[in-house]
Design goal:
The complex is a heterotrimer of chains A (654), B (166) and C (189). By secondary structure, chain A is of the alpha+beta class. Chain A is 63% helix and 11% strand. Chain C has two domains: 34 residues; 133 residues, Glutaredoxin, CATH 3.40.30. Chain C is built from seven helices and seven strands; from the N terminus they run ααββαβαβαβαββα. The chains are: A alpha+beta (654), B mainly alpha (166), C alpha/beta (189).
Chain lengths: 654, 166, 189
């Protein structure tokens, strides 16, 4: 009964989405006040229906209703409750439902928080969101029904891949999807603006909060996925340039470009066409990335193309959404009036350079990911493109990006001179050079350069804050007062940029990692760096749905007892699979990473890593996201108080 | 471990992999990654480092996107051993990679060689910058040029002109 | 002004054009994947068109093994289908029946047991039948690597000059036998 209710709710949501698309776009076109006023209600209704559908699926999973095929295939009675709930989105059907639900939340959010938008624009935005949503819900209903029944119902489900039974991964999809799907809102704003044929500074100001929120979620989602790979897959790596990872990186790169180019639209009414293209492109990459990765075309494990109907359906849907919006773009964008002019050396110029670099990196990632199937199809050549290619091509583009990142915010709008900028930031540059110089002794040049860049970014990002608050030059009280008067956007940008620096420092640090593989019997000892490891015992312990083999290892540092760690190997009888449960002992300056491997002749293979600065990789990403969210708090972005804020911003020294 | 090899061709195997909910960043069927017997490593640390460097350029053929150094697949293990044998014999990195390419084609190289077929791939970073820079340049040219900045002399003159005469 | 707008419009059509090309390519890929003519996961056939790699393998006890020269000599009379298999490989079980039919209709099928124990191989042959004219034991898998094998089963068709003319990664089934294999055999005749 409950699954049928869920199915009905999903169908209802689909109908409401179609209605939302029609009422929104047609109503705004005809300037029909009643239709325009009805759109937000439809969006909220669609959201409620989707929430009900998701709730029904979760209820069926929690109550072990194995007559639902999706739950029988992916759940089991012995599975812990948390994973019964989170497992509902850990499979194709459920993830499509989650995708639709988040899109519904976006529509609901625009309805509720977008009260101050012009009602015509809001109706168009909701109409575009509704149309997109309708397509995906139709896909969910026709080819990926999460509520399909199974008869006879099996007594127990098939269980879930043990690798996915992990808290980090359980919450990874909702966060990542919020990032992906959130970019539907800037996309809808772009299409709505094209439909209206008008883009102004206000448009930039409305789009930015949505783009920033999605960007912050996507940043967190990528970081969480990478962190999961680091501690769960158990070989110390954190980024593999796998198509799945690349698919999340592509919209992140263009999304980052979008967040920046929207500033230029807002402040200077320039780069309008480009920003619209970025908004369309970012969502298109979100869509095509997630779906094409699963189509089986890319060399990734995540394939669902066993049912080719799904592949064709998704491709048609993508063609409709992406092709339609780009056609509209080609028709309408040329008529958009171009705005403020600027010199190459200016804040705008730096943001343009940032956009070119980010999009070049994105192009490299797209090419590297897509080249093998295209080379196969068009040239009949079987080639692989893996981490060594990306490392060789992305880093040379990333370094200048980072250099520009810290400089950009110091440049005034319209036209800048280098002199004053250097006067503000010379100390950051000097320290960065010194850091790189010191690191160059005994490290690879690339690593030293990365540390220098990290220092430059962290310090240079705060150069503007230091300058504006007259820190170190005026009394502390004055600085504090000026700091409180700073727009939070300035502070947010500085924090986000510094976060990137922290991540780079982490990446550079991990490249210095040391590791050692040894086979030890209980009582055996080994040394790595200043740490001495003693294997005390190997023992068995039962888990809820697995059997664990645990190693107890005592660690001393320079002879002083330091810690005892317990890495595990878990075997899941149902899935006939074993996972390693890595122990990570961290002090935020380095990780001690211990993995228990297989046992042979009474000896356990153990792997020890010392990963310097490893936690900084994800810490930096969190700082970046926090910076983005802080910018959101800027009153300029709070819809309702734009005019006052503009005066305040103009009053500040540029 | 063996399971993955079984799955590599079995239709059923592949289907069950997909149905198993492997959707998010699952990179290997077995997580006990490249956790070799330490005895199989080369005793000379420099040689071992070179073997790891070469191995990380070679693709594990049974996996999706891993190097033979990262993979726990049995074939990757065999190839790892071959790389180490050849390093010990004093073969150059180039020779080792060529040996692999002779057997598995360019598919085995994670960093594709620069050939006519991969020219576009390797040109992408430059193309990105050229296209981006070109577009920015064209967009600028179409607009009226911004007024040139005031030179020091002009600034002084402006100041002189605007200063109220007294 | 209007020509300027028109030129811009043309420029702004570029993203649509790129996406359309990409979409068409993806459609072609999905379509051919469905037909089975496109497999982005296959590693290709670098061995095809090249001579048989040199090897000399022992037999699965108590039988005698064979070398690449033996294959070449036999292939000079009649094409040889060289098949890598293993007792632990499930698709090999399905394939055993197909290979049995092939050897019944007179094709010379030779087997190489890949990374397996002799006892397990013998057990496998007893249970599922022995379609092989001769069997060699590649217990370390090195010969397989020389052939570019990356999973079992894999089959190689060797012509009268000792050159590999056709290769199949994965189990032979009726479709493969009637289609590609038959075509390859015809081209040899």
């Amino acid at each position: 009964m409950i699954p049928e209710l869920g199915h009905f709710a999903l169908a209802l949501a689909c109908v409401l989405a179609f209605a939302q698309a029609f009422v929104g776009i047609w109503g705004a076109h005809r300037r029909d006040a009643r239709l325009i006023a009805a759109t937000p209600g439809l969006a909220v209704g669609q959201l409620l229906a989707l929430a009900a559908a998701a709730g029904c699926l979760v209820y069926s999973a929690v109550t072990n209703d194995f007559s639902v095929a999706n739950i029988a295939e992916n759940s089991a009675i012995a599975k812990p409750l948390l994973y019964k709930i989170t497992g509902t989105w850990g499979n194709h059907e459920g993830s499509i439902l989650l995708w639709g639900l988040i899109l519904g939340i976006c529509g609901g959010a625009v309805s509720l928080f977008g009260r101050n938008l012009p009602s015509g624009l809001r109706a168009r935005v909701l109409g575009v969101l509704g149309g997109t949503s309708a397509g995906f819900l139709l896909f969910a209903l026709t080819t990926s029904d999460a509520f399909a029944r199974l008869w006879p119902a099996p007594p127990d489900g098939a269980g879930m891949n043990p690798l996915l039974q992990d808290p980090g991964l359980a919450f990874h999809p909702p966060i990542l999807y919020t990032g992906y799907v959130g970019f539907a809102v800037p996309f809808a704003f772009a299409v709505a603006a094209l439909l209206e044929g008008r883009i102004d500074a206000a448009w930039g100001r409305w789009v930015r909060p949505w783009a920033l929120t999605s960007w912050a979620f996507l940043t967190c989602g990528i970081a969480l996925g990478s962190w999961w790979a680091y501690y769960e897959l158990g070989w110390g790596g954190y980024w593999f340039w796998d198509p799945v990872e690349n698919a999340s990186l592509m919209p992140w790169l263009t999304g980052t470009a979008l967040v920046h180019s929207a500033i230029v639209v807002e402040k200077r009414e320039s780069l309008k066409i480009w920003t619209v293209l970025l908004a369309i492109g970012t969502f298109s990459l979100s869509l095509s990335g997630t779906f094409l990765v699963r189509s089986g075309i890319l060399n990734s494990v995540h394939a669902f193309a066993n049912d080719p109907a799904r592949g064709i359906f998704i491709l048609s849907l993508l063609g409709l959404v992406i092709g339609g919006s780009l056609l509209l773009f080609a028709l309408r964008a040329p008529t958009l009036a171009s705005g403020g002019i600027f010199a190459p050396l200016s804040r705008e110029g730096a943001l343009v350079l940032n956009n070119i670099l980010l999009c070049s990196i994105c192009a490299v990632v797209i090419m590297g990911t897509m080249y093998p199937p295209f080379a196969d199809l068009l040239l009949g050549q079987k080639i692989s493109v893996g981490a060594p290619f990306f490392n060789a091509t992305v880093f040379p583009l990333a370094i200048p990006t980072f250099a520009v990142m810290a400089m950009g915010p110091l440049l005034p709008w319209k036209r800048a001179r280098l002199g004053p900028v250097l006067a503000h930031a010379w100390w950051a540059g000097l320290i960065a050079v010194i850091v790189a110089g010191i690191c160059a002794i005994g490290m690879k040049i690339v690593t030293a350069l990365a540390f220098g860049v990290a220092a430059w970014l962290i310090l240079g990002s705060f150069a503007e804050v230091v300058e504006r608050t007259l820190l170190f030059r005026a009394p502390v009280a004055t600085s504090f007062r000026r700091a409180r008067g700073l727009p939070t956007a300035v502070l947010g940008a500085a924090i986000a940029h510094a976060g990137m620096g922290v991540t780079i420092a982490g990446i550079a640090g991990v490249s210095l990692s040391q590791s050692k593989i040894v086979a030890l019997a209980p009582g055996g000892q080994t040394q790595l760096g200043p740490y001495h490891f003693t294997l005390l015992d190997l023992r068995d312990a039962p888990g809820p749905n697995y059997q664990a083999r645990i190693a107890d290892i005592a660690i001393t540092r320079n002879g002083v007892p330091f810690d005892t760690v317990h890495p595990e190997r878990r075997s899941f009888p149902k899935a006939q699979q074993t996972t390693s449960d890595v122990t990570i002992e961290t002090n935020f300056l380095r990780d001690l990473y211990v993995v228990l491997g297989e046992e042979r002749d009474g000896q356990a293979v153990l792997r020890f890593h010392i990963n310097p600065l490893a936690p900084w990789i994800w810490l930096g990403a969190l700082i970046m996201a926090a910076g983005g969210m802080l910018s959101l708090a800027d009153r300029r972005l709070r819809i309702g108080a734009p005019s006052r804020a503009r005066n305040a911003a103009a009053a500040l020294p540029a | 471990m063996r399971l993955f090899r079984l799955a590599s061709f079995g239709q059923g195997g592949r289907a069950s992999l997909a149905a198993g909910g492997l959707f998010f960043l699952v990179l290997a069927a077995s997580p006990a990654h490249a956790l070799d017997d330490p005895k199989e490593m080369l005793p000379n640390p420099q040689q071992e480092a070179r073997a790891e460097a070469v191995g990380s350029l070679l693709r594990c053929l049974q996996c999706q996107n891993e190097s033979i150094e990262d993979s726990s697949a049995p074939l990757a293990h065999d190839l790892r051993q071959i790389v180490r044998e050849q390093v010990r014999e004093g073969k150059t990195n180039r020779q080792i990679i060529d040996w692999m390419v002779a057997r598995y084609g360019n598919f085995v190289r994670l960093r594709p060689p620069l050939t006519a077929t991969t020219a576009l791939l390797w040109a992408t970073p430059f193309l990105g910058l050229i296209v981006g820079g070109g577009a920015a340049f064209l967009a600028r040219r179409r607009r009226p040029a911004p007024p040139p900045p005031l030179t020091e002399a002009e600034r002084a003159r402006l100041e002189a002109l605007t200063r109220p005469t007294s | 002004m209007t020509t300027d707008v028109n030129r811009r419009r043309l420029l702004l059509l570029a993203p649509l054009g790129l996406v359309a090309l990409g979409g068409a390519a993806f459609y072609a890929m999905l379509e051919r994947m469905e037909q089975g003519t496109f497999d982005p996961h296959a590693i290709g056939d670098p061995r095809v068109g090249k001579p048989l790699p040199k090897f000399d393998l022992p037999g699965v006890a108590p039988a005698q093994g064979f070398s690449s020269t033996d294959v070449q000599q036999a292939a000079a009379q009649q094409p040889v289908l060289l098949n890598f298999f293993a007792s632990w490989c499930i698709p090999c079980v399905q394939e055993a029946a197909v290979l049995a039919t092939l050897s019944q209709i007179g094709l010379s099928v030779w087997g190489i047991a890949y990374e397996d124990k002799a006892s397990a191989t013998n057990q496998f042959l007893n249970r599922y039948g022995n379609p092989y004219a001769r069997i060699a034991d590649d217990s370390h898998g090195r010969t397989a690597i020389d052939f570019g094998v990356y999973g079992v089963p894999e089959s190689f068709l060797v012509d009268s000059k000792g050159i590999v003319r056709w290769h199949m990664a994965g189990p032979l089934n009726d479709d493969v036998v009637r289609g590609p294999l038959q075509n390859a055999l015809k081209s040899l005749a």
